[in-house]
Amino acid sequence: MKLKKLAMIFTGTLLSLAMVGCGGSSGDQAKQEAKVLRVGATIDFAPFEFQDEGQKEYQGFDMDLIRAIAKEMGREAEIQNIGFDGLIPALQAKNIDVIISGMTINDERKEKVNFSAPYYQSGLTMVVRSDEEAIKSFNDLKGHKVAAQIGTTSANMLKEQEGITVLELNTPADCFMELKARGVDAVVNDRPVNDYYINQTQAVGVKSLSDMLSAEEYGIAISKDNTELQKEIDAALKKLHDNGEYDKIYQKWFGTGK
After folding, report:
1. Highest CATH level, class, for 35-121+217-253
2. Contacts of 135 (CB under 8 A, 6+ apart)
3. Which of 2, 161, 211, 254 has the greatest number of CB atoms lying within 10 Å of its CB?
């Protein structure tokens, strides 16, 4: 009888310990999840997000920036590769916490998501030869021959302007080669494409002009019902600007002034 009673007590003790253990495990898991910032991005938009062959981690300006933001928040960025059209639905379904993917802030998207403070200003910019003095802005392109990548916004906007001869080429690299060969007087592309090319190839004999056409701003998208996270993201982004970390990331990928 005593043995049976002892066995019952022993079994009950084990069950209690097991329940306590399970509760602790659940609590630890919740803590771990709270430290993760689930990020959605479309990994095919260099220099903002891409994956080099043989590299495990996603690379790019956006990727470095969101990791730095998460670190400021005491979290770790967990990045998921999602098709661009699926990013906002994934955010609305709570499958991710934020989106960073070269996403332009516009009124249509604002109806579905909230945005952080802008973290990058894009738009069309020009690259000319270093010895070019006649072209200082888009207004100076009349009477000149200009290269742009075929089928892009750059090419289409240039063709709408009077007095500009537009040469459409297959790649940005082709455009720069034509500029160096003096086949054209300027190259027009999206700002990050121009800046990235000059930075990564250590291009000499050319310069990027500050004049910008059709400016647009990129932002980090957050669910509309998560205003607290939006505040945390903005605070972390501001801190990165204040302590110089944002400038370091920017210089790494673009190598030019903002």
Report:
1. alpha beta
2. 126, 128, 141, 144, 185, 186, 209
3. 254
